[in-house]
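USER: Please consider what follows.
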Amino acid sequence: MKDSNEPRTVQAVEISLEILRILQEQTKVGVTGIANELGRSKGTIHSHLTTLVNNEYVVQNGDTYQLSLKFIDLSHSVKEELVGYDIVKQELHNLANQAGELAQFATEEHGRAVYIHKVGTEKAVQTASSPGDREYLHCISLGKAMLAHMPKRTVDKIVQQHGLHGYTDQTITDHEELMTEIKAIRKRGYAFDEEEKINGLRCVAAPVLENGDIFGAVSVSGPSTRMRGDFYRQELPELVTRSANVIEINTKFA
């Protein structure tokens, strides 16, 4: 039985959002493909697509559909509303040059890490993450750095909602182990990703706070062949922590 306190949702909107998700993942797809994936009639899917096309969120090319350029405008608007976005971009540029690796910034939304910006040098590893991508918090240094500065009840809620998916042999998939890790991160001030999401990739991240609350996190990522020794354990933590502090200080006056 459905909880009477659970917020009501509009099924038609959910169908349209699912269609947008499919178009994002598959780039170009037809009515039949979408209908089969969602288990809906082609007539229902066609009606939703027509509405999205008429409102310029989707473009039709023959028998296939794709997201329109309107989403670029939406993305730009969201970034402009993010306090300190220009500061984050500049500091990531500085951090990437200093570390010689990939620098990234993410914030938390709906219990997941959302990548906002990334900057890499010529030798930096090319990760699959792009601005707007979402990732589980427990398996990346950015996410763990943010979890470490959230109330325990919030962490518990996120784990309950999203689970602790395993990606490599190093991924933390036990709740108590995660809480122990979070406690250590909070104490030292930065987080490591010991190949917990991708084999061969290590990261270091520091949280960015705003009036004591988590605003986001900044990280440096690189191949495990280069991310080792004092560079990985001492130099990079100092660099990401310094960058996090610069962002914190400057966003206060943004």
Remarks:
- The CA atoms of residues 188 and 208 lie 14 Å apart.
- The domain at 75-251 is CATH 3.30.450.40 (Beta-Lactamase).
- Residues 229-251 form the longest helix (23 residues).
